[in-house]
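[Solved] Which block belongs to which protein?

Original post:
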Amino acid sequence: MADAKEKVIKGNFVHAEKTLQPAYALRYITNRWDKSEFMEGMLTFQPMYYVMTAFAMELYLKTILRILGQKPHGHKLKLLWEKIPDSYRAEFEEIFVADALPANNHNYDEGLMKMLDPNYKYVAPKMADIFAQYDDYFNFWRYGFEHEYDAQLNNFPFDDRAIQATIRTMRMCIVYFKPEYEDSIIHDNWITALQDGKPPSFKFTK
């Protein structure tokens, strides 16, 4: 019975890792369009980047909850986050602010937000804010065509820096609970290979 439970927990984590890498591929493609086609490329690839990233976050949250003995269901990020005991959430927030967010190299595109609101100023969020803000991105963007233009516009901003820091934090916490999962983390060095004009490879090193 214990072996079956562990298989599900690790399977959940591995699936999160394998969901995250295609999300990174979509982000990589989105940011490489020529300026003359950038908007068309972004509108084509960015929504599915949102879907895959939100789904990966859901899977990491469910991994944590399974480690803590729960049986999580659903796609709502905020609800999943709130099922984690308060003491753990407080610790995760500390790691997020002290380690993950400062270490993240991805920038938040203030340009898009200032197009929507000229007075906009970026304020670094908490993890709880992230899960609340992107709570329904998975459901929304899977069927984005069903929504009116204004709704799509309101759901288009994406704080990539904070999102990636959130994922980094969850990975760190999962490995804290399960050190043996370190070997199951998929690193994105294959992107560095592409940037160097090489075929993608998980084993690529400079």
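(Second protein starts here: sequence line, then its structure tokens.)
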Amino acid sequence: MSKKCTCGFQGTPPHEDIYDCIEYEEVQSGKKKGQWMIDWAKKSKKSEAKRKPSGFNAWVDKSEKKG
């Protein structure tokens, strides 16, 4: 991603993308740097666990249970 920073950081090294801004904002609000990535990974694992098999995978699962 190459969107320019809008967080107002005036230091070194310059922020090159939105992720630098997110980490800067986390530090400013007292959170651990990189916490957004950890939270994102946890949420994606939860949603992945909720998914039901569909299409061919569902058909294979059903046929294996019958046999």
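Accepted answer:
You had them paired correctly. Confirming on the second one: Residues 1-36 form one domain.
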